[in-house]
Write a structure and sequence with these properties.
With 522 residues, this protein is α/β, with parallel strands linked by helices. It is built from 15 helices and 15 strands. The strands form three sheets. It has a six-stranded parallel beta sheet, sandwiched between helices. A five-stranded parallel beta sheet has the order 6-5-7-8-9, with helices on both faces. Helix 7 links the parallel strand 8 and strand 9. Helix 5 runs parallel beside helix 9 and helix 12 runs parallel beside helix 13. It starts with a helix and ends in a 12-residue tail after the last helix. The C terminus is likely disordered. Bound molecules: adenosine-5'-diphosphate.
């Protein structure tokens, strides 16, 4: 049931988030608990007159979405049937353009012998965190999690507010100071990296250790992050235990370092914060659940933050004594007057579960890994040195991410077009730019067949050789394959596309070696 509901939520949501709420009401005695699982999205929504019908077999809210989104119209009918077989019920509330909530309520027996896993929160209780995230629901989730561990938090929604909060803390002698900053990477205006970079360059305000929370599609390396004072980088969605252990380990390290700088003997960290064994269930999906707005470029971000922070160095400010940042190669962080070390460039933890997060797809790639185009581009962004651009016509953001991830660490650079019209326009505008086009078949505005015909006609009229066009088709039937070839396509790949097949086709049709470090796992 959840697979279907979450799958739909992701499919029908281009921006915002997908959230799963779980609520359990226990009954007395042997009576089953009432479990409610609500899947909320900020997607296209469902019109009121279609709300009942979507639970019927082979029904889709809007016939025209089928071509864009694909699907059979069976998932909700099956989900509803399973739910009813479990004596439960499913409800839907939705608003067009705002989003939908599918809520499943089922009675479930309670396992009285289940082991309850408890966190030892002693090392975290009473500490104060600064949460910086533009998405409201993310701030709420983080604040709630920290509160569950006895921590306090102050949550702000952008880099400017974060800088102001740090300045206010520095200027107020009674402020305890922030023990950690949980910093979202992708935010409009000043993004997390810009904020950390700016903060690392200034010396008037003490910066707490930073945990960067990022979606996987940003290309950042550990080295880049350590240079701007980011200790740890976690890929969203972050599991509660991983966040708990990361913060605990960070506090233990800081406490130990501050004891050392005070000349006390180093003691091993408490159990709660000892380096944990990696958890078997800690695998994360390389595809993020929340599709966030890309951060707008912020050319004047530095100047803005500079001006906010430059007012912070009050004569009697409690941080004045720590105004000098430590040199970049100093491993020992400088203790601040608030008792916490300032976040001078620090080493990223290499061991433990975080290393998995740091090695996330894209994290080792040079930035920016891919370019995205929604219209013919004349002034195109610089591609990474030596990479060969290929044009990818694909309307569905998740599939674009998949192609993007598959080509990280290869010699190829995808340039995306959102439909066949944009793709054919881009090709005709710059026919020598792309030696190959990957062409989705089902796309809104102009599908892959028609776009291929536009390209072929233009080539014939201009006496040019045919560029290889490889169809990406969800249709695996023989007729469909023939249709691709009849439309003038050179080859086809059936979705879900496998990386090894994609790379083989790129190599074959462009005559260029794939190179890079991509693994060819099928
Ligand atoms: P499918 O997704 O395969 O078409 P489902 O039975 O799962 O079949 O869904 C039926 C229809 O309900 C979808 O085609 C879509 O029109 C609508 N729908 C389901 N979930 C959502 C959602 N989260 N947001 C918007 N529309 C939805």
């Amino acid at each position: 049931m959840l697979t279907n509901l979450v799958g739909n939520a992701i499919k029908f949501t281009a921006e915002g988030y997908v959230k799963i709420d779980v609520d359990v009401t226990k009954q007395d005695g042997e009576a089953p608990a009432s479990v409610t699982i609500a899947v909320t999205d900020t997607g296209i929504g469902i019109p009121p007159d279609a709300v009942d019908a979507v639970f019927d077999k082979f029904t889709q809210a809007d016939g025209s979405t089928t071509r864009v989104y694909g699907g059979t119209g069976l998932g909700l009918a099956i989900t509803k049937r399973i739910c009813e077989m479990m004596d439960g019920r499913i409800e839907l509330s939705s608003e067009v353009g705002v989003g939908s909530t599918f809520s499943v309520n089922i009675p479930l027996k309670v396992d009285r012998n289940a082991q309850v896993e408890r966190f030892d929160v002693a090392a975290l209780t009473g500490r104060l965190a600064l949460i910086v995230d533009d998405i409201d629901v993310n701030r709420t989730i983080l604040s709630d999690q920290l509160a569950g561990w006895g921590m306090q938090s102050h949550a702000v929604s952008n880099g400017v507010e974060a800088a102001e909060a740090l300045k206010d803390a520095a200027a107020d002698p009674s402020h305890p100071g922030y023990d950690v900053m949980l910093l979202d990477y992708l935010m409009p205006g000043v993004n997390g990296r810009e904020l950390a970079s700016m903060l690392s360059k200034q010396s008037s305000v003490a910066i707490p250790p930073i945990v960067m929370l990022s979606s996987c599609d940003q290309s950042v390396t550990s080295h880049e992050l350590s240079e701007i004072g980011i200790e740890t980088y976690l890929v969203k969605p972050v599991r509660e235990r991983r966040l708990f252990e990361t913060i605990g380990r960070m506090f233990a390290k800081r406490d130990q370092q501050s004891r050392l700088t005070r000349g006390e003997e180093a003691r091993p960290p408490a159990d709660a914060t000892a380096a944990p064994a990696p958890y078997a269930d800690e695998s994360y999906s390389p595809i993020q659940l929340a599709a966030e707005q890309p951060a707008a470029p912020s050319s004047d971000a530095d100047a803005l933050l500079d001006s906010i922070l430059s007012e912070a160095g009050q004569p009697n400010s409690p941080v004045e004594a720590t105004a000098e940042p430590a040199p970049a190669d100093t491993a020992q962080p400088m203790p601040s007057a608030t008792g916490m070390p300032s976040a001078t460039p620090a080493t990223i933890q290499a061991a433990g579960p975080e290393s998995q997060a740091q090695d996330a797809p894209g994290s080792a790639a040079p930035e920016p890994a891919t370019t995205e185009a929604s219209a013919p581009q004349q002034d195109r962004p610089a591609k990474p040195l030596g990479k060969q651009e290929i044009l990818v016509a694909e309307d569905f953001p998740l599939n674009r991410d998949v192609v993007r991830l598959m080509l990280v660490d290869t010699a190829f650079e995808p340039v995306f077009a959102e439909n066949g019209k944009i793709a054919s326009d881009m090709f005709v505008a710059q026919p020598d730019r792309f030696p190959l086009i990957l062409m989705d078949v089902s796309m809104p505005v102009m599908d892959g067949y028609e776009a291929t015909q536009v390209v072929r006609k233009w080539e014939a009229a201009n006496g040019r050789a045919a560029v290889p066009i490889v169809a990406l088709t969800g249709h695996a039937l023989k007729n469909d394959r023939q249709e691709c070839l009849d439309a003038g396509m050179s080859h086809y790949l059936t979705k879900p596309v496998k990386q090894a097949e994609l790379l083989e086709v790129l190599e074959r049709f462009t005559g260029r070696a794939v190179e890079g470090t991509a693994t060819r796992a099928a």
